[in-house]
Amino acid sequence: MRVLLLTTDAFGGHGGIALYNRDLAEAVAQLHYVTEVVALVRNMPFAAGIIPAKVTFVATAAAGKWSYVREAFKCAFNGSFGLVICGHINLLPLAALIAMLKRAPLSLLVYGIDVWKPAGSLAQRALRRVNAVWSISEITRDQMNAWAKLAPSRFSILPNAIHLDRYAPGPKAMDLQERFGLHDKKVMLTLCRLSSSERYKGIDELIEVMPQLIAEVPELRYFVAGSGDDLPRLQQKVIGLNMQHHVIFAGFVSEDRKADYFRLADVFAMPGRGEGFGFVFLEALACGIPCVGSLADGSREALRNGLLGLLADPDDRESIKRAVLQALTQSKAVPDGIRYFAWPMFLQRVDGAIEAVTRDS
Amino acid sequence: MCGIVGAYSHQLSAPPVDPSALRVMRERMTSRGPDGAGEWYSEDQRVGLLHRRLSIIDLSERGAQPMFSADGRLVIVFNGEIYNYRELRGELESTGCVFHSDSDTEVLLHLYARDGEKMLSHLRGMFAFSLWDALSGKLFLARDTFGIKPLYYAEQHGTVYFASQVTALLTADIDTRPDPAGMAGFLLWGSVPEPWTLFKGIKALPAGHFLTVEPGRVSAPQPFKTVSGILRDACAKPATCNRQSAVREVTDTIRDSVRAHHIADVPVGVFLSAGLDSSMIALTTASQADQRHDLRTVTLGFREYAGRDGDEVPSAEQVAALCHSEQATHWVEQRDFEDDRDALLRAMDQPSIDGVNTWFVSRAARAAGLKVALSGLGGDEIFASYPSFADVPKMVNTFRFAKHPAWFGRAVRQISAPIAERFSSPKYAGLAEYGGTLAGAYLLRRALYMPWELPAIMGKAAAAEGLEALQTMSCLNATVADIPVTRLAVSALEMEWYMRNQLLRDADWAGMAHSLEIRVPFVDVALLERVAPIFARYPDISKTEVARATVPTLPESLLNRPKTGFTVPVRQWMMGAATVPSSARGLRGWAQFCGQHYSAANRVGR
Fold this sequence. Notes:
The structure holds 2 protein chains of 2 kinds. By secondary structure, chain A is an alpha/beta fold. Chain A is about 40% helix and about 15% strand. Chain A has helices spanning about 15-30, 65-75, 90-100, 115, 120-125, 140-150, 175-180, 205-215, 230-240, 260-265, 280-285, 300, 315-330, 345-360; strands at about 1-5, 35-40, 55-60, 85, 105-110, 130-135, 155, 185-190, 220-225, 245-250, 265-270, 290-295, 310. The two termini of chain A are about 15 Å apart. Chain B is α+β, with helices and mostly antiparallel strands. Chain B folds into 3 domains: about 5-225, Aminohydrolase, N-terminal nucleophile (Ntn) domain (Glutamine Phosphoribosylpyrophosphate, subunit 1, domain 1, 4-Layer Sandwich); about 230-385 and about 485-570, HUPs (Rossmann fold, 3-Layer(aba) Sandwich), CATH 3.40.50; about 390-485, no CATH class. Chain B contains 26 helices and 18 strands. The radius of gyration of chain B is 24 Å and the shape is globular. The two termini of chain B are about 30 Å apart. Chains A and B meet through helix 14 of A and strand 12 of B.
């Protein structure tokens, strides 16, 4: 079977959706009955990197909107496809047209805030053509279905995969400790984009709780890693609370040093409201770092409803404080339950989801 | 009394079930079944069924669970007793079915193979079971009509979990966020009304319902027989016999139910409080020749009442003497409660303002060597002996005028609430708003807190969300819909609300904590189906009249004794160490304490 993957971000992309789609393409390609995965992306800010076996990556599709459409049709009419996967709801009208022309079943991937509000009318009409919706979390499914009103049986949950071999617990990197003055300090870490359009991450709440936290743990430092246009506002907020000696902004973190940043932490916290899943929690856990997520968003599922980490109510500062303090008492270890998201499980889920959609169609 | 647990990864994209996680869930229920444990997984590891056993019928290994049909197609885990299993087995054997054990569990397998979902209408008993059908790839969950046995379920990422206890499911990877509907329900009633629990992801399978899980699909719960349905049918077709025959029929039905509830391969005792319900059960048992020789009765006595008016013990011992039973009287006092309080709170599967008496009498029964005891629970509901049977209709007649317009009652409540709260019970403020209908009057009668009080306790948003989800008045109205006979309408309310959510739940967790199976002869489908048409025709037949006819040896002094049940000086004991607002009167304070303690204590490992 050949599979057509139409997505916005994957190889050569940055961020959660890109990572997810790279994993998905690789997983689909590993299935023995799949002969080829043809993958197109809209955005490619970096070099594509290593392309997995059986994946044909059409880099020229990233040259612009019309290039993408042209390449998509070109691929579509070059042989048959057993499945079309639409990697973003914005691409659904195009994907639905191609699936209809090729008489192939169509799966739609949904992640988080991309579908928490109703889609445009064209995309909503195209939804009728979708055979299956693959959601990274139940909260995304439920938020989407509040407006989409699809039969629950059309949804499969395919949470992120974590390659456990790419992470591990380890000592705190001396150079980073030196650079950020973190020797002999307890470190609470948040690692994310600091975008003004993503103020749901819980950073404001954690900054506001810092005075109470340092009253109990004076050596605590809140280490915010990541860059974005919201940084100046957050810096002002810290100064306003007189926490500038306790809150450190690290700036952009490169992929190759991400694990070191995690290992600097004694707790990873991001008690927000808008995560579709929160892959970053899996990364932190894989480095053995205790985590504090949120009851109100997909991080609850990333932490397996509290089995892998603590859950706080982002509207309740006391709840956040209690969770962080409790996490600081936990020892560092990779929890066994993280295997639920390990690569072999992801492969199984993808296999099952493809079987379900091709059988049902 | 056993414990069942299991999971089905019905969506192809869901990972296989995790045996170690399921075992943890099962072991949370060890006290439900200390006699053995079993488990089974499908070859593809997508289904797991586990069981903890309390051996009562067929004590041999052949009665162990999970149990399999001979062809291997069906696997079952079952909690409960099927009292007509011998008759059903006879029918099945006559059609060629071959049995390998003497258990009632095996009867369920054969019945399902023959009738599928329709098997449920043949069952007389208390049950919660899960049956896997390998041929259809379907998991079938079912629960008895009264809800005597509990069954909870949850779904996460394409896997359905089920268990006999909420606290077992809490160890699984499911949504355990607090559910405002569960907490609002608890504050309204003093127990969590089904199908809600305190946790968003966990629901109770409604009583008298079943559900199926098939690949990619979980059905909504489907009713097969409900209490209000039986009472509705009884009103539609009341008995036609004369009153004398009617009373005789009730008497015969009680005797039949008591006999049926004695089926066991272990001794069966009787909780004896000297109230009419337990006296009827004990004396009926004693009169049935085959039960007489090993009758054991257990009574709870409270030191605080010894020798005073509230002391049950002399009357209970008088009844025990009439029964020639082996009587065990167990005395408790405040110190016993204080010693047991933490264990009692931990044992509550969901918070409850009651159950203390059942805890102690169950402990006493187990200490007396019993695994099974009959309780008079349900007698007040079926024989209309609660004060509510008089109070509720009276309230309706008095306040019927205030029903319309709806704003009038609300306005009266809003004006009078501060006064009522200050000088008497806050509930008085609701008389005009709620008192004019059976449903509203019942809420006023039974509620711990009224809906308008919840925002101050829970917070406005949580209370609004909880009350919106509960739809209490709609659900109460649905209970009494099309039941024109007032006595049966109030019976429906008491059976489907107070008895189901409070008394039966308390009997389960308190009995389970001591590995004791509590059976309830007055909570029986066959009994209800036979007597309801009689009470539809003769709603004035009282419990005293029934008791006089059923157990004529019971002295008049005991027939006319004021109702006590196992009265416990609970309020004083419970408030002993509770830290509650001074505005919380009596059991309200205990409820707030209990709710807070439960929420903190039962968050297993999170």
